[in-house]
User: What shape does this take?
Amino acid sequence: MGDYDIAIIGAGLGGVYAMHRFTSQGWSVVGLEGASDVGGVWYHNRYPGARVDLDSLDYCYSFSEDVWRSWQWRERYAAQPELLGYLNSVADRLDVRRHFHFETWLNAATWDPARRRYDLTTADGRRLSCRFLVLTTGQLSAARKPGFPGLDRFRGRWVMTSHWPQDEVETAGKRIAVIGTGSSGVQTISTLASEAEHLYVFQRTANYAVPAQNRPLDGMVQKELGDRLPVEREQLLTDTAGGVRIPEPQHPMSHYPTAERDAMLVSQWETGGQGMNSVFLDQGRDPQVNDIVADFVRDRIRGTVRDPAMAEALCPTYPIGTRRLCLEIGYYDAFNQDNVSLVDLRDDPIVEITETGLRTRDHHHEVDLIVFALGFDAFTGAIDGANIRNGQGITPTDRWRSGPRTRLGMMTAGFPNLFLPTGPGSPSVLGNLFLQNEYSIDWIADCIAHLDEKRYASIEASEAGEAEWTAHVAQLAQGLLRLGIDNYMVHVSDDGSRTFIPYIGGVRRHVASMREAAAGNYAGFDLR
Ligand code: N01
Assistant: This one.
């Protein structure tokens, strides 16, 4: 397939932008994508009800006024078809599709220290090489696959939300099981409830879901934002935690009289969205403060779900915001329908899948369709899937037994010219991934230009630079309630020690650190 300056793995929202940015710079660039087209997460997650949980006006590209004006967002939270349509439209506008090889899965990438290049092999045996390898594979892309005994003998159909089939999946009038109640489960349950003859929801852990308060968008708001796009964008980069326009907490809860505190919670409920995570400055660290916010949401669940036992089973017991908050449109209402049952796996675990359904310890549920919404092998799954090896034959995650180690969430020591934009140690899943991909890829482009100008062949995180950033990431996460709760953002080592994987310092501090490193001749990196 040839020798390139840069290989980009993945044609999702990061890959599309990376291809545009790098080819604009005049480098030879190739993209490999396993799917048959662009879209990444929005290509694969086409399950009924799939929708973004950040505001559409934040969750889109902001690097170009032309691209901004080319698309009119219809809803506060865009649904998957609109997001996929957007990514296709941008890919056409930027003319990047022709540089990607679709249905092409990277099987292995090995660094050759003598040639200072990666040699890549695809699953169908093609070979290519590149100086720089950029993984825009996303943090939530490698699916957690169902491993339930008996699945192979099930005579109905089974699907995964994370890789929803392209062909029609018949749901109307079917008996359907959904296993998993994270963001994907919550969204698809809410939609399937109105289509299924009967819907069985298999829940292992109840999660918090707050109203999305979705609504049609006023085109004028988007136009006005577009009129001041560069200023708005710089403000998101330098003055926000998540790269989104969500008001940030100003004071600890104790600052407010009780009536004002309660009014703030009601107001946030009515506003909708992820803001329920950050009403008070100390709700992520103080269990008592957190409990007041959590109780507010639990009371709303009890006020919505009419069957008290079911309501109780749907009430989460962990601190709110310590796992990703789900946004709901009719989720709890669905449990008031006669055709929706909740199977609480804490009381009655799944034993096996049979020819006709699912057997829990106490019951057999006959179904036609099983929907697995089991989530992802987050952060490391896609890196491992790429099978990248350095000159010593080890993979990046071989060095991460006691938690991921990176410099700025961008590179890991021992792997020259391998970039992991939005990787572990960056804000990543805590914020706006469009914006983070843009600034990370801009940083990589500037970095490669700098290497070329100064005639360096390679860059990698230095051991000291990596250790410093990894310690900083861990230090900021100390005392977070979320560090103590099992979820995909926490790495648990064999010795039981826990590492919070993303950077809690926020976009503003991350951007400042990235800019500082670049201005200081890539401090914390070895240039050779
Ligand atoms: O995955 P999850 P997700 N038996 O890991 C259950 C983004 N996203 O795909 O909690 C039974 O949150 C598991 O149970 P438990 C968003 O960042 C965004 O839903 O481990 N159950 C859990 O309920 C989100 O946070 C949108 O006890 C099993 C569920 O499967 C992230 O993706 C939409 C099980 C997995 O939940 C991941 O969300 C969708 C088993 N063996 C996703 N194994 C937007 O809105 C797992 N589970 C943009």
